[in-house]
Amino acid sequence: MNNTLLLTKTDSNAVLDLQDLKGWYEYEPSYDGVITHINSAGAKLFGFASPDDLIGKKVNELYAHPFDHEKTLSMLFRDGEVNEFYTLMRTKSGKLFYIKQSSSVVTEGLYKCPLKVKSEFLPIQTLNSV
């Protein structure tokens, strides 16, 4: 699945520069989409001072297009995992950047009841100015 975005000249100023943000970042939302854990690097990636600033926020608030979150959830429930799905995200200040995410559903018990979604994401070089 490809995500397509057209930027205007004013939109291009809102794109995040990821040159200094390299590596994997990890977060865990609850089953209803509330962030319960994120590492420090992930908080920094989204423009927050600490992981505590993101705890309790809804994951879909971090997506540039909320429908992308719905697509991710659809794939998770259908396949149990999402591998290397590219998504446009938004920082606290509204800057845009792409991630490559891999996610899986964490289950518990004999009936494999879903508890939460565990995701890892790698920031991808941002869009060029238009």
Give an overview in words.
This protein has 130 residues and is an alpha+beta fold. The protein has one domain: PAS domain (Beta-Lactamase). Helices cover 18% and strands 34% of the residues. It has three helices and five strands; from the N terminus they run αββααβββ. It has helices spanning 9-12, 40-45, 66-79, and strands at residues 25-29, 35-38, 81-90, 96-108, 113-124. Strands 2-1-5-4-3 form a five-stranded antiparallel sheet. The longest helix is centred in the middle third of the chain and has 14 residues, at 66-79. The radius of gyration is 15 Å and the shape is globular. The two termini are 23 Å apart. 20% of the residues are buried.
The end-to-end distance, rounded to whole angstroms, is 23 Å
Shape: globular
Annotated CATH homologous superfamily? PAS domain
Helix content: 10-25%
Share of β-strand residues? 25-35%
Give the structural class: alpha+beta
Tally of DSSP helical segments = 3
What fold name goes in the CATH topology slot? Beta-Lactamase
The total beta strand count reads: 5
The first-level CATH class name: Alpha Beta
Counting structural domains, the number is: 1
Strand order, sheet with most strands: 2-1-5-4-3
Largest sheet: 5 strands, antiparallel
Oligomer: single chain
Order of helices and strands: HEEHHEEE
CATH architectural category:
2-Layer Sandwich
Please state the CA-atom Rg, rounded to the nearest Å: 15 Å
**Averaging pLDDT over every residue, what do you get?**
77
Low-confidence stretches: 1-16
